[in-house]
Design a protein that fits this description.
The structure holds two protein chains of two kinds.
Chain A lengths: L4 H7 L4 H14 L7 H10 L4 E6 L5 H6 L5 H10 L1 E5 L7 H14 L5 E5 L2 E2 L8 E2 L2 E2 H10 L3 E5 H6 L12 E2 L9 E4 L6 H14 L12 H4 L10 H6 L9 H4 L18 H4 L45 H26 L1 H14 L1
Parallel strand pairs in A: 1-2, 1-3, 3-7, 7-9
Antiparallel strand pairs in A: 4-8, 5-6
Chain B lengths: L1 H13 L7 E5 L3 H25 L15 H29 L14 H15 L14 H25 L6 H4 L4 H5 L1 H34 L3 H7 L1 E5 L2 H19 L1
Antiparallel strand pairs in B: 1-2
The chains are: A alpha/beta, B mainly alpha.
Chain lengths: 362, 258
């Protein structure tokens, strides 16, 4: 049996005080509240240090970049310390055969106990040749690591819903993780996901040893239960009907709602307006730019980004449903007007008959 | 001019030279008329507010947010009208089973040969106008009824997508029942897009519907427009006589063309 989390922290020179501080912070981050600290202490004293495999497939590493910018450094540091991050292409010291051995050993020695964190989509077209690591396709690696995993987390929109790789025409057949493995996957979408949300999901898995409550799209309800719009600080302007008409106009300066600038907040489920980014400094809307809906499936195909209604497919980029609708409406008006004229010409005998009936009676 | 005078002459022969007689028929019962007007008001409100939700206009002056709530009201009217429209539609479905023969559900499905024949006839007589006289139905003609069936489908589609969108803003049981539609259709972007696109179906329908009501009133002179207020329409004495009259007039037309 390996070290418990508390034992491994002691070996690394953390004091009991550090450990308790970490436990309190972890309890808060996992959503247990400060009163849950005792539960966390007890768990970390008994629980074996969990082995973690962080896989990178078709992605840009923005999820990793986001993760290391979590706003609770004590949690982030300790977490990276207490986790046995046994395999991650971007951060590990080992390379080549050593790295592969580490991956295989982790799977062999921790069957059913290790956590798999996946960053990136998996290409399935042409036998999966578009993403290969160590001579193996991403798909076969995923199947190997997923088979005996205790939990699988899909980091970011790539792993959750395909993101830009899966945007039309999806040349590599990029596929989200949940569609490839026969296990429940925790989807943490976003491009990238919010650092503190990632941290919280990992902490939840560690502390409670169970999957957080998920919605019907496999996302933790705690963070993806509400729309960006619902918690937006500019919401009052929306209800008042005060909108920014163009970037840098007077309304923009006053901080009105960005709905007419294409803000996707009303259709995007995320915690940006609550948790915010970079240690709670800001988030896109606060910086004067609409939400682009990066955590929603298919957001690349539902553009343009500066138009809140999706463009009508098959026409120019600017044709919305309204352009088409107006054209159809006008054509219909012209059609009925023409029909009215034609009726008076072609059916003049019928009209005359109706009038004749009247003459006869009077 | 000669065509017209022939037509006039023909009418006199219809009833053996006597005035053409009409009977009064109670076609649209009270619940049908109530449904029509509640639906008309609700749909108009839904179209106008729906369009505004997609394209809010610019406010004339720029106060602080707490001083205004116009967009909130627009959305409120949209949601309230939606509820009225849904329950009104449900009531109409009920009336399709208990109402008179003109309101019966089977009017709306062109399953019988007779209905299918009538659709072709209406297309020939009223839309393309290649035929001068067609059989005149007392209630809905079969083509109109079928188009109404399509609108009912559009009603259902708007109800489902509308409640799916509304489900994220409501804890009421009705909208929440449609939450599963969102991932099924590919996220709220898509639901919103389709819900907005169908607005134009209704706009088009309203234009055509109003025009054709006036058209029938004008061409048939038997109170089509007022029937949706009072419920009464006029028929030539009996359907048999009407059919005979049409046949007579059409054979005259055919002779003329020879």
């Amino acid at each position: 049996m390996g070290d418990t989390i508390w034992q491994s922290m002691q070996k690394k020179g953390y004091s009991r005080r550090d450990f308790l501080q970490f436990c309190s912070a972890a309890a808060v981050v996992a959503g247990l509240g400060k009163s849950g600290a005792a539960q966390v202490v007890s768990a970390f004293e008994k629980k074996e240090k969990p082995a973690v495999l962080w896989m990178h497939f078709q992605e840009c590493t923005c999820c990793s970049e986001s993760f290391i910018r979590a706003s609770h450094p004590i949690v982030a540091d300790a977490l990276l310390d207490v986790l046995s991050l046994n395999y991650t292409e971007t951060l590990m010291a080992a390379s080549g055969f050593q790295a592969e051995k580490s991956l295989n050993d982790t799977i062999q020695n921790n069957k059913g106990k290790y956590i798999v964190l996946v960053e990136g989509a998996v290409p399935t077209k042409d036998g999966g040749v578009y993403c290969m690591v160590g001579g193996k396709t991403a798909e076969s690696i995923l199947q190997t690591v997923a088979a005996d995993a205790a939990a699988i987390v899909a980091w970011g929109s790539c792993a959750s819903n395909g993101c830009v790789q899966a945007a039309k025409p999806n040349p590599t057949g990029a596929t989200p993780i949940s569609k490839l493995v026969n296990k429940p996957v925790i989807n943490v979408p976003g491009c990238p996901p919010i650092a503190d949300v990632m941290m919280s999901v990992v902490t939840h898995l560690l502390v409670l040893g169970q999957v957080p409550e998920l919605d019907n799209q496999g996302r933790p309800k705690e963070f993806y239960g509400r729309r960006v719009h619902d918690t937006c600080y500019r919401r009052a302007n929306y209800d008042a009907g005060l909108f920014v008409e163009s970037f840098d106009d007077e309304n923009a300066r006053k901080g009105y709602c960005l709905y007419k600038m294409g803000c996707k907040g009303p259709v995007t489920y995320n915690a940006c307006s609550v948790v915010r980014w970079n240690e709670g400094t800001s988030y896109p809307i606060q910086s004067g730019h609409g939400c682009i809906g990066c955590s929603e499936a298919g957001f690349w195909d539902n553009g343009p980004l500066y138009q809140h209604l999706t463009s009508f497919p098959g026409f120019g980029i600017e044709s919305t449903a309204d352009t088409i609708g107006t054209a159809v409406g006008v054509a219909t008006l012209a059609g009925v007007a023409a029909h009215a004229v034609v009726t008076n010409i072609r059916k003049r005998s019928v009209i005359a008959e109706v009038h004749a009936e009247d003459q006869k009676e009077s | 001019m000669s065509t017209q005078s022939t037509g006039v002459k023909d009418v006199f022969t219809l009833n053996g030279g006597a005035p053409v007689e009409y009977r009064r028929v109670y076609v649209w019962e009270m619940p049908v008329r109530a449904y029509h007007w509640i639906n008309a008001i609700a749909l108009t409100l839904l179209c106008v507010t729906g369009f505004l939700i997609g394209h809010p206009f610019r406010t004339a002056y720029a106060p602080e947010a707490y001083q205004l709530y116009w967009f909130g009201w627009v959305r409120f009217i949209h949601f309230a009208a939606a509820y009225v429209y849904v329950f009104n539609f449900a009531a109409r479905i009920y009336w399709g089973f208990v109402g008179n023969k003109y309101a019966k559900w089977n009017n709306f499905f062109p399953i019988t040969k007779k209905q299918q024949k009538e659709i072709v006839e209406v297309l020939e007589t009223d839309v393309l106008q290649v035929k001068m006289h067609g059989e005149i139905s007392t209630g809905h003609n079969s083509l109109a009824a079928f188009i109404y069936f399509l609108t009912f489908l559009a009603f259902c589609f708007q109800t489902i997508t509308g409640f799916a969108l509304y489900s994220s803003m409501s804890n009421a049981w009705l909208p929440r029942m449609f939450k599963w539609i969102v991932p099924l259709m590919g996220g709220e972007f898509a639901v919103r897009f389709w819900h907005h696109l169908f607005l134009w179906f209704f706009v088009t329908f309203i234009i055509v519907h109003i025009y054709l009501s006036f058209y029938h009133d004008y061409i048939e002179g038997r109170g089509t427009i007022s029937s949706i207020v009072g419920g009464w329409k006029f028929d030539r004495q009996s359907p048999e006589q009407m059919a005979a009259a049409c046949k007579l007039l059409d054979s005259k037309d055919a002779d003329k063309q020879k």
